[in-house]
Structure prediction request, 1075 residues.
Amino acid sequence: MNAFLRKALLCAPLFILMGLLGLVFAAPLLFMFASSFKHDDAIFSDLSSWSAYVPDAGWSMANYAAIFERSNLPLFLFNSTLIALAVVVGGILVNSMLAFSLSRMRWRGRGAVLSVVVGMMIIPFEVIAIPLLSLVARLPWLGIEQGALTLHIGWFNSLHVQIIPFLANAFCVFLFYQFFRDIPPELDEAAKMDGAGPWALFFRIILPNSRPVIATAAIVLFIAAWNQYLWPIMVVQGEAARPVQPGIQQFFGRSNSWGQIMAYASVVTLPVLAVFLAFQRQFVASVAGSGIKG
Amino acid sequence: MKTLLGRDHPLAVGGFAGPALILFAAFILAPLLLAAAATFTNHRLVSPEPTRYVGLDNYKRLLALQVVTVEPLRDGAGAVLRDEDGMRFPTWRQTRSERPALAGYRAAWQFGLGERRIVLAATDPLFYRSLINTFLFALLVLPLQCGVALGLALLVNQRIAGRIFFRTVYFAPVVTSMVVASIVWSFMLNTDRGMINELLRTLTGNPDVGPDWLGESRYAMPAIAIMSAWQGAGFQMLVFLAGLQSISPELYEAATLMGANAWQRFVHVTLPGLRNTIVFVMVSTMLMAFGLFTQVDVMTAGGPLDSTTTVVYHAVRSGFKQQDIGYGSTITLVFFGIVLLASALQRFLASKGADK
Amino acid sequence: MSRKTLAALAMLATLSGAGMAAPTEIKVWRHDTGDAEMVASRDMVERFNRSQAKWRVVVESIPQGSYTESITAASLVGQLPCLMTIDQPAVPNFAWAGNIRPLDDLLPESVVRPLLPGGRGTYRGRLYSVGQFDVVLALFARRSALVAEGARVATVEQPYSAQELRDILLKVKHTGHYRYPLDLNGKAKGEWVSYAFSPWLQSAGADLVDRNDYLRVDGVLNGGPALGVARYYARLFKDKLAERNPADEKGFEQGRSLIQYTGSWKARDYAERFGDDLVVMPPPDFGHGPRVGAASWQWAVSRSCPHAAGAAAFLSHVLSASEMAEMSRMTGLVPVSAAAAAMTEHYRPGSDWRVYFDFAARYAQPRPATPAYPAISAAFEKAMADLRGGKEPAEAMDEAVEAIEYDLARNNGYGFTRPKAVASK
Prediction:
């Protein structure tokens, strides 16, 4: 048989394996997505059969219509997108800069700071949630209201309270640090001989060559910001600055409307998947072609 | 690793390190210190009474442990009373009322030793139980998640059609919010009508099989471990993928030339090339495992019979739901200390091993 | 009146309309239930705003599932609005913390007097919250199904005894017609468990805490009668009469359960679905008569509210018989005054849902009015969960007692003191 057939035969078992694994990984999400098109009763009568994962004959967009009517979902999506983008851009900048200084600059206390950063990766958010709450209630903020600069105390019910505390991310710093460590020092030598200072080195040489880790950090930060749940519940009571995740609680009450909950969950999950798809090609392409690790 | 810029100008260092450090200090370290301070008080979530300094009371309550020997009930002649379950012992409350030193203690574990019963009593038995649960969870999830992630990465690294599609599919669970994922999984894990048990029933042909995943203490934690691995594997897969693609193809060519088969190539080229990545993945998985909270909150509420209560869950329940902030902070701080110690120990051992 | 007076009045009206006295804004938070109740609430606020020009109520809705966390966080930093809804059992805790103010001197007597106990939230003898509606607990079943199984239909005069209910369920289980004959609304977590099952304690002569001093728990929550209820509850699951972890609350609706124990918020839904075949029965009697929980979401005024008069005006509007009747009409929930009930189609004397109103009047017992309630409820909920998991009833109740006693000690009894003349033991 020819080479193509032989290759296909070799690949076939792997392909089947990947397909099966894909089903396992996708099953819960398929369930969520399929249920969003069903009436509540249908969700539960289908629960134990294969039809739980596919929309049934009487599928409709009724649940989607309902969630947009019952809640201000477009506003929540807008808020979450804004918050997530701000966290990604600001976070990449701030964390990579710290990692750069830790990995490529010499200064006293560098080792201690690194240990502290690594230590901070362990702290779950719930530990600091309440003291952080007291803190942001007392911080001042300059805002522009009706054309004049106003100072008010407290960051509640705003977008910045959901952004600023999350820009510095220990995990991202560590990610950048590991990556920068592996960049060969020859690049630094070359830059220094050209008379470039640390800023030029960082922005013109290191960053452009760090696409894979930037993509990874972007994904991490975006997901963390998008999936924020406990914090917005605590600091945002009004609708104006509310992001997507707390909104799902609206559909849990005396009678849970499961179809709508699944529809809401679908609307809230799909954009993130889209973002990942967009970043993913970048990530792979640049890793394959970076040539740094060769 | 060399740094080449000499001792750098403080302004430059400040410019680079400053923003992140200020943010860390303000939004993570400061609250942490406040939480630490709260551990020495009886700070409540809502209370009209002022917060008082209570010294080490919270710590004592958290950690106090005692070993107690309990004699079985005897009749007038001194013979041991028995019933169909074995020897009869006084209830814990009875034992405690006889020994004033045990005030506030509750039984954590007990086992029989000959004619006596040895009871490990603690003022907060749930804390010790939650420590064990957390470590058990980490032990379950670590090999599962990392192993699956490595396998997936190896798969999607092959030049097979559709690998970009599959990569997205494997990553999809990561982008789902934990709240949503927990809800969907509790449907799937339902004993009677959930998909998992249905699958087991069709596969084994036995209509009675199908454990009560979330209702029995034996299965609840493994179920949550499987679900967490499902959620996290996709991300670690990406990290492994980056590591795999950084292994130079020349090494593989050299190995093939030397006559190595696929397995030998894997063991002698892939694994060593991935060493740093493996360490990173394992450490980060373990750290995230220690913070287990949302799944437990949504799926099992710490049950059944406290088998899924983790340290963070115990802390949040004490702090937020039972409104005892001082104590909740104590739990997390002690736990944080334990994890810090464990990771320092691990790094110490790893560096020792590397030296050899 | 003379033309001059008319002109003067007109000018006055124009002047006031021209911004001399724009309506004062009153901020209100309410839980977002997202269904008919929200529409009804919105209309009610609109009617208030239109009925007078002095106050304007602005409502912010907060998702119900995380509502308590949200307002607790806001209360921690003093950012509560003027008015808010609170689930009644949490009211004493809020009052004790100093977040809300008493309403006795704020609302006129005529407005408060007609309210049933389910419409009031009191703490230490003072009124802190008022509500428009109540919900009651009931056993729902289909007459045809009960008859087919040979079980009698319980009535208000002759409720099921706990033993009788158990016998019916066991008999039905053996026929194999239903996998889990009793549906206990097990998917609902949180306050549902305390709301639904602490009345069983009261029906047996026990309680969550001794209401004479709100301090004694030992012997009350783990005494003989309470242990009897605990054993009964545990055996429901051991004998597989009820499902431990149901996937949904639709068991009864879809014919998979014979009897469902749930709240009357299902009244309208089930009435539409089953029509005359639906029977509404009282909860089981554990010896002292059936009991149902009382009081649902109610309105409270925060201590920091700068416009108490406006808040009072709004509450008077809310509690008027017509508004209560309208809310009941739109949501199907039980109105909390006889006058309002008389104005509704379903709750006036002789109508189809009057039975719920009667339950409320006859059997309702509010949850203990103590700031310790969140801790008590959490401990009770955990005990029930442990009982479902197979824990020994004496141990489970003991543990709940320990947790509550500890909480009471930590908070210096929440200000309660033992009365001088205490009955021995």
Summary: Residues 1-60 of chain A form one domain. Chain A has two domains: 1-60, 68-289.
